[in-house]
Design brief:
Blueprint: H1 2-60, E1 78-79, E2 90-91, E3 103-108, E4 122-124, E5 128-134, E6 142-148, E7 162-163, E8 170-172, E9 180-188, E10 201-204
Antiparallel strand pairs: 1-4, 2-3, 3-9, 4-9, 5-8, 5-10, 6-7, 6-9
Length: 205
C-alpha cells in the first residue's frame, strides 16, 4: 500500500509541476503581450502627436504679406548696325593693294541715317564673355583685332587692340576690354598675292 501511495504521490507531484509550468508560460505570454501592446500604443501615440502638431501649426499659420517681383529684360552683349544679312562692313582701303606691302585696314559700319561719319562695327553693350568664330583661315601674316571706335577715323595701328582668334573667348568689362564701341583692324605684314578672300565672323555668348 505504501508503494501505491508513494506512486500516487509521485504522479500527483508531477501533475502539479506540469500545471505550474503551464501557468508560468501563460503568465509570460500575457506579460509579453502586455509589453508589446504598450510599445505599440506608445508608437501610435508618438505618431498621433506629430500629426496633431502639424495640424495645429497649419491652423495657426498666419500670412503676413506677399512680395511681387518685376520682370527683368535681357540685353544682347554685342550689337551692330551693319554687316549682317546682305550688308557688309566698309573697309578703309578697299584695294587693290600691292603684293608684299605692309599696312592696316579699318572696318566699320556706314554712316547712320542723317550722318556722314561711319559708325562703329559693333557695340559691347554689357559686361560678358563672347566668342568669335571666323569662317575662314586668314592668309599668313594677316591678323585681326578689335580697336576702340574713334569717330571719323580712317586708319588703325597694327599691334593695338584686342586680338581676334576663332574660338577664343573675349570678355568685355573687368580685366578685358571695356564695354563700348569697336571697329575691326586688319593688319598684314606682306599682302598675299592672291589677296584676302571674303570671310565672316560670328559672335556668340
Amino acid at each position: 500500500m505504501r508503494v501505491v501511495w508513494n506512486h500516487n504521490r509521485t504522479r500527483f507531484g508531477e501533475t502539479n509541476t506540469q500545471t505550474s509550468r503551464a501557468i508560468n508560460i501563460n503568465t509570460r505570454i500575457a506579460t509579453l503581450a502586455c509589453c508589446w501592446n504598450l510599445k505599440r500604443a506608445k508608437k501610435e501615440l508618438v505618431i498621433a502627436s506629430i500629426v496633431l502638431s502639424g495640424m495645429i501649426a497649419s491652423v495657426y499659420a498666419v500670412g503676413l504679406f506677399t512680395h511681387n517681383f518685376p520682370g527683368i529684360q535681357a540685353v544682347s552683349v554685342l550689337t551692330t548696325a551693319c554687316g549682317t544679312g546682305s550688308s557688309k562692313l566698309i573697309p578703309s582701303n578697299p584695294g587693290p593693294i600691292p603684293t608684299g606691302s605692309t599696312g592696316t585696314i579699318l572696318f566699320n559700319c556706314p554712316p547712320p541715317t542723317g550722318s556722314n561719319v561711319n559708325g562703329p562695327a559693333l557695340t559691347a553693350a554689357a559686361a560678358a564673355t563672347t566668342t568669335p568664330s571666323v569662317s575662314a583661315t586668314l592668309p599668313t601674316g594677316v591678323t585681326l583685332a578689335l580697336v576702340s571706335y574713334v569717330q571719323g577715323a580712317t586708319t588703325c595701328t597694327a599691334g593695338t587692340g584686342t586680338p581676334i582668334a576663332s574660338g577664343t573667348p573675349i570678355t568685355f568689362g573687368g580685366a578685358g576690354p571695356a564695354t563700348g564701341d569697336y571697329n575691326y583692324c586688319m593688319s598684314y605684314t606682306a599682302f598675299p598675292s592672291g589677296g584676302i578672300p571674303a570671310f565672316s565672323i560670328t559672335w556668340s555668348q
